[in-house]
Write a structure and sequence with these properties.
The complex is a heterodimer. Chain A is mainly alpha-helical. Chain A contains three helices and no strands. In chain A, helix 1 packs antiparallel against helix 2 and helix 2 packs antiparallel against helix 3. The longest helix of chain A has about 30 residues. Chain B folds into two domains: about 80 residues, NADH-ubiquinone/plastoquinone oxidoreductase chain 6, subunit NuoJ (Four Helix Bundle (Hemerythrin (Met), subunit A), Up-down Bundle), CATH 1.20.120; about 40 residues. The relative contact order of chain B is 0.06. Classes of the chains: A mainly alpha, B mainly alpha. Chains A and B meet through helix 1, helix 2 and helix 3 of A and helix 1, helix 2, helix 3, helix 4 and helix 5 of B.
Chain lengths: ~100, ~170
């Protein structure tokens, strides 16, 4: 069988790749894609813990479903924001969206 | 090395490779396609973890809905940012260092938790009626009825919010 630590290490790696994308990418859509990667990494962790430690209780899968729901809501609102900003300011570069910068 | 380990390693390499391509690709459409590959890799991992329902939900929701939404957004906002010039900001090296340090810290702290050492098989056999339990837990007031209703409200708010935000006001 696959050790639990392998799943946790893979999830950590995927999360850190996503974190790099969030911090380094310029394009707002790319930042949103990186956030989706991070959420997926968290889901791997939750399901792995459910499988190895508490398979009798459905709470691990429950958390994953809630994360999926929040990810769907976040993607819808985030992309609507990006498209709205693009329509008004003709840019999707995160650095140029500085209306609230002091 | 068992078959499950081989499948896990192949899936892990594919998922991580797709993830790296998502954050590194110059062409955003290619990045979105790599993102679909990463989602699919995660679905395979769910199958390996015997969470078949979640694997199906992963394919339907992430690949079927979120990835398509992202591709739409890329196509609607494409001409501003051509695939020329740097796709990363000036602090990309700092972001790389932060990500590497966090990864090192997580892997190091995994080795410190004694309860995680040597867990190679499920503590108890995986029940075959997981989906049934999940369904009952969602509507049981003593379990997850409140989160379920909150999720419904959240989705409704997100639906209305995204319509209001992206509506074309003249």
């Amino acid at each position: 069988m696959v050790p639990l630590s392998w799943y946790l290490a893979l999830a950590a790696a995927l999360f850190c790749v996503g974190l790099y994308g969030v911090l380094a990418r310029k394009n707002a859509v790319a930042i949103l894609m990186s956030i989706e990667l991070m959420l997926n990494a968290v889901n791997i962790n939750l399901v792995a813990f459910w499988h190895y430690l508490t398979p009798q209780v459905p709470s691990g899968q429950m958390f994953t479903i809630i994360v999926l729901t929040v990810a769907a809501a976040e993607a819808a609102v985030g992309l609507a924001l990006i498209i709205s900003i693009y329509r008004r300011r003709s840019t999707v570069v995160a650095e140029e969206i500085d209306l609230m910068k002091w | 090395m068992t078959a499950a380990q081989v499948i896990f390693l192949i899936t892990a390499v594919l998922t991580l490779g797709a993830g790296v391509y998502v954050v590194a690709a110059r062409n955003l459409v290619h990045a979105a396609l790599a993102l679909i590959a990463a989602f699919f890799g995660v679905a395979v991992l769910f199958v390996l973890l015997q969470a078949g329902f979640l694997a199906a939900v992963q394919v339907v929701l992430y690949i079927g809905a979120i990835a398509i939404l992202i591709i739409f957004a890329i196509m609607l906002t494409r001409r501003v940012m051509e695939d020329t010039g740097p796709q990363t900001n000036r602090q990309w090296w700092l972001a790389g260092i932060i990500a590497l340090v966090l990864f090192g810290a997580i892997v190091f702290s995994l080795r410190l938790v004694p309860a995680l050492q040597g867990v190679t098989a499920a503590a108890q056999p995986i029940p075959t009626d997981t989906i049934e339990k999940l369904g009952f837990a969602f509507v049981d007031p003593n379990q997850y009825l409140l989160p379920f209703e909150l999720a419904s409200v959240l989705l409704l708010v997100a639906l209305i919010g995204s319509i209001v935000i992206s509506a074309d006001r003249k």
